[in-house]
Design goal:
The complex is a heterotrimer. By secondary structure, chain B is an alpha/beta fold. Chain B has helices spanning about 25-40, 55-60, 65-70, 90-100, 120-125, 145-155, 160-175, 190-195, 225-230, 260-270, 275-280, 290-300, 310-315, 330-335, 340-355; strands spanning about 5-15, 50-55, 80, 110-115, 200, 205, 215-225, 235-245, 285, 365-375, 380-385. In chain B, strand 10 and strand 11 form a beta hairpin. Chain C has a domain at about 5-115 and about 205-220: 3-Layer(aba) Sandwich (Peroxisomal Thiolase, Chain A, domain 1). Classes of the chains: A mainly beta, B alpha/beta, C alpha/beta. Chains in contact: A-B, A-C, B-C.
Chain lengths: ~170, ~400, ~375
């Protein structure tokens, strides 16, 4: 707790620590992620394939379990994009999040819902809705890249961002 | 028809500004409460219950209603309840007040929405609304998803056309705000070029396409049909309210065209007997956090076909003097104290019905709509009029 | 007042840490249980009211996390931030307005997720009180000290409350702490905030609770034993601790008078069959007896000694084990209502109070009974 007195204001800073349960399906998601498999959950009643995996199909109000998990491709289609260009404090780190950064909605092949994630492109003229994209694993990056890690650990940093596929790669 | 009719009999607002360093939280809220009480010629002892709300994380005070309800609103030894639902806080408060009266449990209630946004971090707070594993790491507050949605809209209906329409919305709303003494950003001489040359905040949103962060409070006093006539001969009556919520995960559906607005508006139009909103409504106060949102939300509310709001705007239908003026108060683009914003929409709709809009008054306004938006893209609506009956 | 009924309730087993479940899955478990119990689907629910708190969940707009789990997609849902007894009241208002036939009320909390002391410290204003490090423990210590000094209440009398509630919890399959403790155990436990010791305070629990409300017209479709709302009163005490009457719960007194008047209760001990109250620490329950008019001012200790609030007494208080056995933060008020509903439906099994026809619920908001909600329920 840091407290400074201003002329008309009292300043206050507190760390409020939390730990949230991620649920059984997320636990399985991260285990499989280590093996390069991106998994979502499929509703046993309506068949809707959800990304990210979660324990309830909201439309049917039916439970989904670890047994209902299905694999999606790491490739997908770009549905929307923006380039975030303003400063703010990241509540996960307490520090300013670096900007600009690309921020996209994409639909992985096989999924019925969408995924929001970082993108390494920061020039908005280079995006085109409908183009093909791919999830990038941290160990595939060049060794001097900020997000490079030598192996997959089964956490969110395993896929640091989505990459726009060039025409010749499609 | 509900068990009791609900009337708005008193309204108070603070002059919304970026930073109110001259007052602390209770003092700021008191300004709006005092104004509402004076407006209705009532005292705290005459009012049965208080409904108050803000977003706790933005000011960093847990259970803030236990402090503000007593110190700012004077409800010592009386009922206090807090409703807090993000961007829709104000409209959820407005709707809860409706049910407090409609149920017959209370005869008169005070509804207060407030926020002192610049005392905390709004964007940081908004990020914590989302899932810690799947959404927070990349989420950029409220503007990031709104930019994504604007972009999808642009790609569907034409980038150039949409950008110009969005800039025209800013010009309309911020010059409308110059007629509203409470509005935060009043820009009577703003031009489309000025908006379109401002810095790109998150493609395609430019700086002036985005709402500000304001500090202030809004208070409304509701009464049932028996009490209302003792207080004023010019109340605004609730004809109906509706709410529609959606999935937890923001990306379970591509929501650039706000499906919840379509669901909530269909529901309320049926209840109130509205066949053609542009013809049947006289004025609409909608919740547009960005100028692009007004394009998509008005289409979702059925004011025109999808992709056609630009034409409605060009034809002057939603300008002051048009068939359905949208946001004569300046809207959210001009004033955004998050906990109060949606309640201000309800208050401004009531002000139009009561004929107290001064320079922003829409002549002969008899049916007005107020809208709240927030959360994982939820919509809340109210329709106010000169009597509580449906139109047909 | 028109009639509004509770026609079904469902609770999760309360535990120290529900580490496997997200908020969505936790609320889904209890809502699905309720649907199955009543033989309904999501389409039969008109509207949903939830009770949660942002600081407790560590999420702004905490109700956003549970939308899928409570079945409010494409429906109307609203959230009362605070104790869920107030969420019940809002839901009842929606039914009484005539605009909804059925309203679902759901509340959840996971005390294991956050630092409960920091969360409660954040309730205090940052100008005069927060930097004193006040939280629910030290505030309770202050209140207990002033109350016990003024009226000569003993630590033994306070400890009897704990022993009673912890023993009652053994009969409640949902309760978190299921271990009997003696008055001696309480007196020997480490001092946390004089004069209150560790066992004078509740545990921290995770869980969720849900119930369905409906109007007179539809009640019998769901159950033969609907539980009707008979009386309601709400009152808020001062915020600054220096402004509060620390020795008497005056706001509770006013709230209960309002509720009794509405329900036609002139002699609480005779006319009430069972009570579920929100006792946040041992002496709190003694103060609540006085606030509810069960005994005179300062006689809470003597009333405990009399045994009237034991299961065998004239007015059993907290057959479920109360908050001293299960403390689910925001869900506490709704759990009290669920327990009374089970009593009046005759479904309380081992903890059933015989012939329970009228029950009282006390839900509390904030620190040491600042917000108070008293509800009277009747089984016919």
């Amino acid at each position: 707790m840091v407290r400074e007195k201003g002329e008309f204001q009292i300043r206050w800073k507190t760390d409020l620590p939390y730990k949230w349960a991620i649920g059984k399906l997320a636990v399985k998601y991260f285990e499989e992620l280590k093996k390069r498999r991106i998994m979502g959950s499929k509703c046993p009643k309506c068949g809707k394939r959800h990304m990210p995996p979660r324990g309830v199909c909201a439309d049917c109000f039916v439970e989904m379990t670890v047994d209902d998990m299905v694999e999606f491709s790491r490739k997908g289609t770009l549905k929307g994009f923006t380039v975030v260009n303003y400063p703010f404090v990241d509540p996960n780190t307490g520090a300013m999040r670096p900007f600009p950064y690309g921020y996209v909605i994409c639909q992985l092949d096989g999924a019925d819902t969408y995924l929001m994630h970082f993108c390494d492109e920061t020039d908005h003229t280079k995006f085109k809705i409908g183009q093909r994209v791919e999830a990038v694993f941290c160990d595939e990056l060049p060794k001097d890249h900020n997000s490079y890690r030598p192996e997959l650990k089964g956490d969110i940093y395993d896929i640091p961002f989505i990459r726009l596929l060039k025409d010749e790669e499609v | 028809m509900p068990k009791h009719d609900v009337a708005v009999v008193g309204i108070g607002q603070t002059k919304f500004r970026s930073k109110r360093r001259d007052v602390n939280i209770p003092e700021m809220i008191y300004e709006a409460v005092r104004m509402a009480l004076d407006d209705a010629n009532l005292e705290i002892k005459d009012i049965d219950a208080l409904l108050i709300g803000n977003m706790d994380h933005f000011e960093g005070i847990n259970f803030s209603e236990l402090w503000t309800g007593i110190d700012a609103c004077g409800f010592y030894l009386k009922p206090i309840v807090k409703i807090a639902t993000g961007g829709t806080t104000g409209s959820s408060l407005g709707i809860c007040g409706y049910y407090n009266i409609a149920s017959g449990i209370y005869d008169k209630v005070l509804v207060v929405g407030w926020e002192k946004l610049n005392e905390g971090g709004a964007t940081t707070g908004i990020i914590t609304a989302f899932d810690p594993v799947w959404e927070r790491p990349s989420l950029a507050g409220a503007l990031g998803p709104l930019a994504l949605m604007a972009n999808i809209y642009a790609s569907k209906y034409g980038v150039e056309r949409s950008m110009k329409a969005a800039a025209d919305v800013v010009v309309k709303n911020r010059s409308n705000a110059a007629n509203n003494e409470f509005a935060h950003l009043q820009m009577p001489n703003i031009t489309t070029d000025f908006v379109m040359s401002s810095q790109m905040i998150s493609y395609p949103l430019r700086l002036h396409d985005c709402c500000p962060q304001s500090e202030g409070a809004c208070a409304m006093i509701y009464a049932n049909e028996n009490e209302a006539k003792k207080i004023t001969d010019n109340p605004a009556w609730f004809k109906g309210v509706s709410t529609a919520h959606y999935y937890t995960f923001g990306c379970d559906d591509i929501m650039y065209n706000l499906p919840t607005a379509t669901i909530a508006s269909k529901h309320i139009y049926k209840k109130v007997g509205i066949k053609d909103p542009v013809k049947d409504l006289d004025v609409a106060e909608i919740y547009e956090p960005t100028s692009w949102s007004e394009l998509a939300w008005c289409e979702a509310l059925g004011f025109c076909d999808f992709g056609q709001y630009a034409k409605l705007l060009d034809d002057g239908v939603t300008q002051m003097g048009g068939e359905l003026p949208v946001n004569p108060s300046g809207g959210v683009l001009s004033t955004n104290p998050i906990g109060a914003t949606a309640l201000v929409r309800f208050a401004e709709a009531a002000i139009q019905i009561m004929g107290r809009g001064g320079k922003r008054q829409v002549p002969d306004a008899e049916v007005a709509m107020g809208m709240g938006f927030g959360g994982s893209l939820w919509t809340e609506l109210c329709i106010l009029g000169k009597d509580p009956k449906p139109l047909r | 007042m028109d009639k509004v009924a509770i026609v079904g309730v469902a609770q999760t087993k309360y535990e120290a840490e529900k580490i496997d479940q997200t908020y969505m899955e936790l609320t889904f478990e209890v809502v699905k249980k309720l649907h199955n119990q009543l033989g309904i689907t999501n389409d039969d629910v008109g509207s949903v009211i939830t009770g949660s708190n942002d600081f407790n969940d560590g999420r702004t707009i905490a109700n956003m996390a549970v939308q899928d789990g409570v079945g409010s997609v494409r429906k109307s849902e609203s959230r009362v931030s605070g104790d869920s007894a107030f969420a019940y009241v809002y839901a009842a208002m929606r039914v009484l307005s005539g605009e909804y036939d059925t309203v679902l009320v759901v509340s959840h909390s996971k005390c294991s997720d956050g630092d409960q002391f920091l969360i409660n410290n954040s309730i205090f204003d940052p100008f005069y009180q927060r930097h004193l490090g006040l939280d629910q423990i030290s505030a309770a210590g202050l209140m207990a000290n002033m109350y016990m000094s003024k009226y000569g209440i003993t630590e033994e009398q306070a400890a009897k409350v704990v022993a009673k509630n912890r023993k009652n919890a053994l009969m409640n399959p949902f309760a978190h702490l299921q271990k009997e403790i003696s008055v001696d155990d309480v007196l020997k436990s480490p001092m946390l905030a004089y004069p209150l010791k560790e066992l004078d305070f509740p545990p921290f629990s995770d869980g969720a609770v849900a119930m369905l409300l409906t109007n007179e017209k539809n009640a019998k479709k769901f159950t033969d034993n609907p539980v009707w709302l008979k009386g309601y009163g709400s009152c808020t005490d001062a915020y600054y601790f220096g402004h509060r009457t620390m020795t008497d719960l005056i706001a509770l007194e006013l709230a209960s008078k309002e509720a009794y008047k509405m329900a036609g209760i002139t002699d609480p001990i005779k006319q009430l069959d069972v009570c579920e109250i929100s006792e946040n620490f041992s002496t709190h329950e003694l103060m609540i007896y006085e606030g509810l008019g069960f005994c005179g001012k300062g006689e809470g200790g003597k009333f405990m000694d009399s045994g009237e609030t034991q299961m065998s007494g004239n007015i059993p208080v907290n057959p479920s084990g109360g908050i001293l056995s299960t403390n689910v933060a925001m869900a506490n008020g709704l759990i009290r209502i669920a327990e009374i509903a089970l009593q009046l439906m005759g479904k309380a099994e081992k903890r059933q109070v015989a012939d329970a026809k009228t029950g009282l619920v006390y839900g509390m908001n904030g620190i040491c009974s600042q917000g108070n909600c008293v509800l009277i329920f009747g089984g016919d």
